[in-house]
Write a structure and sequence with these properties.
Elements lengths: L2 H57 L6 H16 L5 H22 L3 H5 L1 H36 L4 H4 L14 H4 L10
Helix pairs in contact: 1-2, 1-5, 2-3
């Protein structure tokens, strides 16, 4: 075999090997994003399953506060329905559900018997734990999305990402109130 042919073959092997490595790296990153999204989905489903139990537990105590319970139930239904609409729609629906849950918990504070009910306390604790797990899962998902989006936008991966169908993924955005820094005034009046 002549030296020129050998050099051409070596260069081709290096290019094909490098392309395969880049492709496999992009696939792994895309799969990490999908897995991270699945973890969010698991936690959201758990949250959605806990809410009807909480509503039923407080319903008897809060007969005249029916609007709060209706809002929570409607927000839960919207969040469940938003499940297949992508991260942006899912985040918006989940943020609305979080707001209605906060209003429910605020109302629960007005009922001493309800605050002392062990079933309600257990459900609130489970929801709080689930909220923490959702927050962790969101962070993991957003980190995976950042890694993936960076990989498909940087050289040399970008040379194969576009032609092979690797597209940007959306972040799971936190609710707007959570992004605002609270104002603290420590002056004495």
């Amino acid at each position: 075999m002549d030296p020129v042919t050998l050099i051409v073959l070596v260069v081709l092997v290096v290019i094909v090997g490098g392309g395969m490595l880049l492709y496999n790296n992009l696939v792994q990153r895309r799969l990490r994003v999908d897995e991270a999204w699945a973890q969010i989905d698991v936690q959201l489903k758990r949250r959605h399953d806990l809410i009807p139990n909480l509503v039923n537990a407080v319903k008897g105590y809060m007969g005249f506060e029916q609007k709060v319970l209706e809002n929570v139930t409607a927000a839960r239904a919207n969040a469940v329905a938003a499940g297949g609409q992508g991260p942006a729609a899912q985040a918006a629906a989940e943020n609305q559900l979080t707001q209605t849950l906060r209003s429910l918990f605020a109302v629960v504070e007005n009922y001493p018997d309800l605050k002392a009910n062990q079933n309600v306390l257990a459900l609130q604790e489970q929801l709080t734990t689930t909220e923490n797990q959702i927050a962790f899962s969101r962070q993991n998902y957003n980190a995976s999305v950042l890694e993936y989006n960076t990989a498909i936008a940087t050289f040399p991966s970008m040379l194969i990402a576009g032609p092979l169908g690797f597209t940007r993924r959306e972040f799971f955005e936190a609710e707007p109130e959570a992004q605002q820094v609270p104002q603290v005034d420590l002056t004495l009046s």
